[in-house]
Every structure is written in structure tokens, then in C-alpha cells.
Design a protein that fits this description.
The structure is a single chain. Helix content is about 40%, strand content about 15%. It starts with 16 loop residues before the first helix and ends in a 6-residue tail after the last helix. The protein is globular, with a radius of gyration of 18 Å.
Length: about 290
């Protein structure tokens, strides 16, 4: 078990009003920032989705973010998926939402558009029966022995960085008769501390993953370079965009849905949006600094 899970009850469902307002303010600021970056880049409003990165955040905190307009969440660790999913599923059901693979995936786009379209507005609970869907992504590394824990819950695994892992997920998905969304993680920065395949291998790996049964290749993911040089950060994002475009242009079987670019976090979100990101993964700007690593 991860150490901080011994000190914080991640299944906790109740937070005080001040904390809920703090989180809501964070969500509204991030949604406003996304809208401003879209406009500055000449992009269509709502073309960038906000994924709330919920590592170390409990159920109550995550619900506060969703009540404020978040329409996609992402966990780093399978252990947290297991702990939080039951409470989130029940409480979201009371609000008229479904979570992860238990819901109507076709309604996800409408829910996300609603969220980005009301940036800065006062948010309220969705009415009962609204049939909104909250996609649940795994954005951290996945060990083979944890695949079975996340498949019943998550829609998309963003951290697929090898054929071996893709094959293991595909086998398990096929056994259960489901299709799992995946993003190919690419290490654009070349930093040894980061996971992801080499950029030079990405196109070939994407084609091979696209051809696998049980998987839907939905796009690419990267973590921005951990440097102060804006040019270096932007180039990594721009290269991922060009790689995505080459994959789509190839016309290879199973690559036609490879459209998402999950790139950009709290510190480099604006750069990522200007370089073509379709999903930004934001935690600190919504929830504040983590109390636990």
C-alpha cells in the first residue's frame, strides 16, 4: 500500500464548505484559463478537455471538483482507483452522473462541452436522470498484475508505453468482452526519470496497438520537459502533435480514432494548448499542493 494511504482516508466523502469553495474556485480559474488559451491560439471553444488529476485527493474533494464543473478525472495509482470508485459511483449516481465504464460513453462529449462552456459560472449538481458521464482515466504507470483492478472502472489507460503492456491489457480486455481506450505514452523530453516510449518508435507502436483486439487507440500522451526553457517545452508538445498527425495520415487499421493529445499540466498548460493539446491534466491548480507524495 502506498504510504500516504496509511495517513489519509481516501474514501472520505465529507469535506467542509470552505474546502469545497476553495476547490470550486480552483476549477473555475482553470476552466477560465483553458478558455483564454483556446481563444489566444485561435482554437474552437471547448476543444480542450480538463482532466482533474486526483492523486491523494479523497472522494469528497473529487466530488467538489465535479460539482464545480470537472467532467473527467484521472488517477495515478490503481490502488486509489479501487478505494475511491465505490463512493464516487454511488454519489455521482445520486447526481445523475455515471462513472467510468459503467456509463453511457456517448454522452461524455456533451457533458465535457457543458463543463468548458460555463467556465467561471456558479456550478450546481446535475439533475437526477441527467445521464451525464464522467470518464475515468488511469494516468499513472500500470503494472501487469494491477490490470484486473482498473479494467472494471477506467475508460482509458493513458500510460501505455510498450507493446508488452498493450498486449497484456488487450488479453485481459478480450477475456472480459470489453474494449479499453488507450493512449500511447511518449517520452518527448528524453528524461530518464520519465516513462514513455522513445519518440522514434511511437508511430510503429501506435500502428501495432491499433491493430490489437480489445483496445481502442485514442491518442498520445506525454509529460512536458521539466525545464525552464519555454522553447524546449513547446517543441516536445509540437513534436507529439506532428506524430499524432502522421499516425492519422497513415490510414493504418485501428488508428482512425488516434486524435487525443493528452499533454499539459498546471505549470505548462497554456503552452500545451497553444501546441494542440486536447486534454490537460491538472491537479495542483484545482486542489492545491499535495499534502502527501
Amino acid at each position: 500500500m502506498t504510504a500516504y494511504m496509511d495517513h489519509k482516508d481516501l474514501a472520505n466523502e465529507v469535506i467542509d464548505e470552505a474546502r469545497a469553495r476553495e476547490i470550486a474556485d480552483g476549477v473555475h480559474k482553470v476552466l477560465d484559463g483553458i478558455a483564454q488559451a483556446e481563444a489566444a491560439a485561435g482554437r474552437e471553444a471547448g476543444s480542450v478537455k480538463l482532466l482533474a488529476a486526483t492523486k491523494t485527493r479523497d472522494v469528497g474533494e473529487i466530488l467538489a471538483a465535479i460539482d464545480a464543473g470537472v467532467r473527467m478525472i484521472g488517477e495515478n495509482r490503481p490502488q486509489e482507483v479501487v478505494v475511491k470508485a465505490p463512493g464516487l459511483t454511488r454519489l455521482l449516481g445520486e447526481r445523475g452522473f455515471s462513472l467510468g465504464v459503467g456509463g453511457d460513453i456517448a454522452s461524455a462529449g456533451a457533458a465535457e462541452a457543458e463543463a468548458t462552456g460555463v467556465a467561471g459560472d456558479s456550478a450546481a449538481h446535475a439533475p437526477a436522470g441527467a445521464q451525464g458521464h464522467i470518464p475515468f482515466h488511469l494516468i499513472g504507470q500500470l503494472q501487469a498484475n494491477k490490470i484486473g483492478k482498473v479494467l472494471p472502472v477506467v475508460n482509458t489507460i493513458e500510460s501505455v508505453d510498450s507493446i508488452e503492456l498493450a498486449e497484456k491489457i488487450a488479453r485481459r480486455a478480450t477475456m472480459h468482452g470489453v474494449t479499453v481506450g488507450v493512449l500511447l505514452e511518449v517520452n518527448e523530453s528524453g528524461e530518464e526519470s520519465k516513462s514513455g516510449c522513445a519518440p522514434s518508435h511511437a508511430i510503429d507502436l501506435a500502428k501495432r496497438i491499433g491493430a490489437m483486439g480489445g483496445l481502442e487507440l485514442q491518442g498520445l500522451m506525454t509529460i512536458g520537459a521539466h525545464v525552464d526553457d519555454e522553447r524546449v517545452i513547446r517543441e516536445g508538445f509540437a513534436h507529439l502533435r506532428r506524430t499524432r498527425d502522421q499516425i492519422l495520415a497513415s490510414g493504418a487499421t485501428g488508428t482512425e480514432h488516434c486524435k487525443e493529445l493528452s499533454m499539459g499540466m498546471t505549470q505548462d498548460m497554456v503552452y500545451a494548448i497553444e501546441e494542440g493539446s486536447t486534454i490537460v491534466r491538472v491537479g495542483t491548480a484545482i486542489f492545491g499542493a499535495r499534502a502527501f507524495i
